[in-house]
Amino acid sequence: MKRYLGQNFLVNSYVVDYIISHMCIKTNDFIFEIGPGKGALTDSIVSKAECYYNLTVLEKDKELIPFLKKKFFKPNIEILCGDILRFDLNAYLNNWLLNGKARILGNLPYYISSQILFKLLESRDLIQDQLLMLQKEVADRIIATPKKKEYGKLSVLIQLFYEVEKVIDVTPDKFKPIPKVHSSVIKMSPTDKYVKLVHDKNCLFEVVRRAFSMKRKMIKNCLVNLVSERELQSVGISPTERAQHLPVSKFICLSNLVFARKFN
Ligand code: SAM
Questions:
Q1: Residue 83: CB within 6 Å of ligand 1?
Q2: pLDDT tens digits for range 73-83
Q3: Does residue 33 have its Cβ closer than 6 Å to ligand 1?
């Protein structure tokens, strides 16, 4: 096992099968798995899917590749050795997909899980959904709704682009070696419901960053010099409110207001 590669392999067949059954693999699905390891999830796809699908797995540890190639020697499965952060995912998916979209699967190496999330964001238009195992604490922040203590910058930035839902929590004893942290699987489905309302993404990122820069402060203090109290009220936000209480839609209103002011 290579701990520096985040190698905590799933060894509980109930959890593995639960995750794969949640995917509801359909005919002609194209699945891309990040970090197959010893193939726990891959194996469940191969034995459970009752339709024709295509599957590519990308593993960084080259010592696992001969094992994977032998175990999954099938015409519809491609085994690649590489680093997901350096891999040209857009080019690969564009090459593969005719008009459908890819389904991403991965029990992610936690040491780079945020970087993988932002990498996948770049390929959002080519992705139908992504089923990802993450550290529970990160998953809880991603799916948190306003007023929950986990709700913050990450929740807003991810929910801007995806519908998110928790699939299952997984305790450390379901892995080998046993990790120090709890895990969760979440499903993320790209959506344009918010993105189409945003006038300038960079402006929005800046507003969100500043709004959450001082967690317990009132929004009027976090956004001082950027938005006046009157402007906050004009989009239905009380100046004494905290960022943690505001839904994604309010951050969009605020950033559109700031962006519009640049041109007036
Ligand atoms: N899918 C397997 C399972 O559930 O048992 C293994 C999951 S393990 C948490 C993460 C896997 O990602 C390891 O096999 C590790 O070698 C691989 N990995 C680590 N860094 C990677 C990277 N940058 N690109 C691709 N795979 C990586």
A1: yes
A2: 999 999 999 99
A3: no
6 lines ligand 1 (CB under 6 A): yes
The Cα 95–Cα 67 span in angstroms is 26
Tokens of 20: 């794969």
Alpha-carbon separation of residue 192 from 45, 94, 171, 198, 250 (angstroms): 29, 20, 33, 10, 16
Upper half-sphere CA count for residue 169 (Cβ side, 13 Å) = 8
For the entire predicted model, the pTM comes to: 0.94
The single residue listed with the structure tokens 């197959």 is 36
254 alpha carbon – ligand 1 mean position (Å): 39
Pocket test for ligand 1, best of 2, 4, 9 (most atoms within 8 A of CB): 9
Q: What is the token pair recorded at 6?
A: 């985040």
Phi/psi for 95 (5° steps) reads -65, -35
pLDDT at res. 57: 98
